[in-house]
Amino acid sequence: MGDEVLRSPLYDRHVAAGAEMAVEAGWQMPARYGEVAEEMRQVRSRAGAFDLTHYGRVRVRGGGAVELLGRLCTADAVHQEDDTAIDTLLCNDSGGIVDLCRLLRLEGFWVLVTSPECRLRVLGHAQAQAEQFGAKVDDQTEKVAAIAVIGPEAPRLLDAVLPIKVSHLPDDHAAVGSVLVAKYIAVRRNVGDLWGIEVMLTHMLFGQAWRFITDKAGANAIAPCGMEAWESLRIAAGVPRHGREFDESTDPFAAGLEGLVSFDHDFIGADALARLRDKESPR
After folding, report:
1. How far apart, in whole angstroms, are the C-alpha atoms of residue 95 and residue 276?
2. Can you say how many angstroms the Cα of residue 133 is from the centroid of all Cα atoms in its chain?
3. CB of 28 closer than 8 Å to CB of 5
4. 14 and 40, same structural domain?
5. Residue 72 belongs to what H/E stretch?
6. What is the CATH number of the domain that holds 116?
7. What are the pLDDT digits (tens) for 84-99?
8. N or C: which terminus of the chain has fewer CB atoms within 10 Å of its end residue's CB?
9. DSSP string covering 159-203, please?
10. Could you tell me if 263 and 274 are in contact, meaning their C-beta atoms sit under 8 angstroms apart?
11. Is-contact 152 46, C-beta < 8 A?
12. Is residue 53 classed exposed, middle or buried when 0-12, 13-18 and 19+ CB atoms within 10 A define those classes?
């Protein structure tokens, strides 16, 4: 990527809607549409829609994919069930955190959803190990975009506009649907105490989907919100982010993320973390 600033496929729509744009991890993203306090009120009382295109989406597939992910992930990816999402860390040989990711297991492939800052780092980290396992790793971030819809009314509103019902999805489960000829992935997630779902869709149809959800759905339309409100929700939910609360010099124990580490398998950094496990963290 270098110094190139990427644009969400919704860039023109954000600008036309009056959003104040800012560079976020190398992407031009909407910082706010109006007052952040009002966006937060909207999310907590009804629902808000967030463009999460700048989060990385790294696809893993092939015969050795599950073995590769078992080696990369501190969580037990090998025994993860189909159509689910788990949180996991990727660590370096010293036990430092490469990133905190969400791992989706779908039919025939996996997706590592990375922090915005860590997409290329995670991509390189995974590709460096992929060949020995016979797995394929490729970056889908600039092909597949993502919308998160968060709030107490989100399940009702989305059931009224999406081709598949999502209100029944259990926490951390995924479903695949289709719009015209394009498939999309809906992943259930909580953001703190708020119901939420993330929808991943090809760039080709992303603008239409965003316009419908935020404008053309009539009484079911959901207000768009910016990254400042998203960061406020993240912090309130206690979700750490690379470059904010931790970096690659931080180990899971110092970051309070030891719950994402399973020592029942041999992952990168396991030996270093085993030595740190019984030591009191200086942080």
Report:
1. 9
2. 25
3. yes
4. yes
5. helix 65-72
6. 3.30.70.1400
7. 999 999 999 999 999 9
8. C
9. HHHSSS--TTPPTTBEEEEEETTEEEEEEEEEETTEEEEEEEEEH
10. yes
11. yes
12. buried
